[in-house]
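Researcher: Let's try something more involved. This one mixes different molecule types, so please make sure each is placed in the same coordinate frame as the others.
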Amino acid sequence: MIVRITVALLSVAVVSSMPALAQQPRPTAGVERVPVTVVFREPPAAAAASYTVLRRASQTPRDVIVLVGPATGQTLTDAVRTLLYARMAEGDTTARDGVVRTRQSHSANHHANPYPWAERVVHDVQAAPQREVSGVGRVRAVEIWLPPQRMRRLGGN
Amino acid sequence: MNAKHFRTQRVVALVFIVALLPGQPVQAQQTQSLIVISPDEYWVVRPSTCPIRLYGGLVGWLFGYPNGGYTWTPEWTRYRVPNPSDYSHADYRPDSYDGYTQGKGDYITSGDGLISFDTSARWYKPELYVQCTATAKFYMGHIVSVTEHYSVLENRGEIVVCRGRGTALLEPIGDYTGSGPNATYDPYSNFGASDGCETEGSSSGGGGGNTATCWDEYIYVEVSNDGGATWEIIWEGWAQVCT
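Model: All components are placed in one shared frame. Result:
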């Protein structure tokens, strides 16, 4: 008898909880980001600020932004944008090693503002301790995380 | 009996024969239909096996699959045939469902839906229920072509709108709460907040406040595999850039 009552109570509990489960809001979709290592290479004297974006298929870290010279937040922003375009075109991970760059067909009238956090990251990497980065050498480096591009296709190709 | 009359009779005879055909054993319950275009030309439409993969070009989705006012990936993979005796109906999921480990990007996860081309919507648990047919075109009694058609009978899943976004890139500007001095993006965190996609009508979430100024630029994305000596264009086209 006790068993029957227990089973009945459990059944009621389960059934009554089902609508609640169905009405639960979809959990807020957190976004797992994709890393990129930003390194700072000590420039030769009077070197201009520049950057290089490396993508590797098998080495870790997979994506590396190499800043050279008196880099600013704008320099890092441009590098991040280049990497994001590459991730959109190839995926968040690449299948082949390479250096990536972007070109515009004409000089744009607008210029994208630097990301508000970019200047801080540049300062951080310039002050970071040196460490060995595979394929790059012993450099100052920090790791930052970017929103996934998820193989979304750029239109018009 | 003149020639025209004979052909007409032949078409009628073929209609009769086709109507009697039992069809493929696996599709025995399926029907086939006849479309008479002229006395010399007719089409036979019958069920066909749904392919393993569907691509945009095959189904006429030139720049992606349209659904719910948005455009989505045109590449889909058959993952289930609801009725094992009828391969002319199948369920499809977006290609590369677990693509991150394959180097294609984890654009679909259990809690994170497919994203539209313009990034302004997500499609959670995207599935297509597809009917596959083949149309054989006959002319003068001879088959001249066979065309396969894939009709989406049902779009499954839930499409939600991403507020406050709509740029070509998912950019690290304040965890999708807008750019500017109040941006809250933490570049050292490996996990971000919601990307601002929420069900229409919902007031929760941090979508608002997109005051970005955007414009289009024609961009070439190039890769060099020899240290910069030569460059290969991996994509070119218009992209939206925002401040």
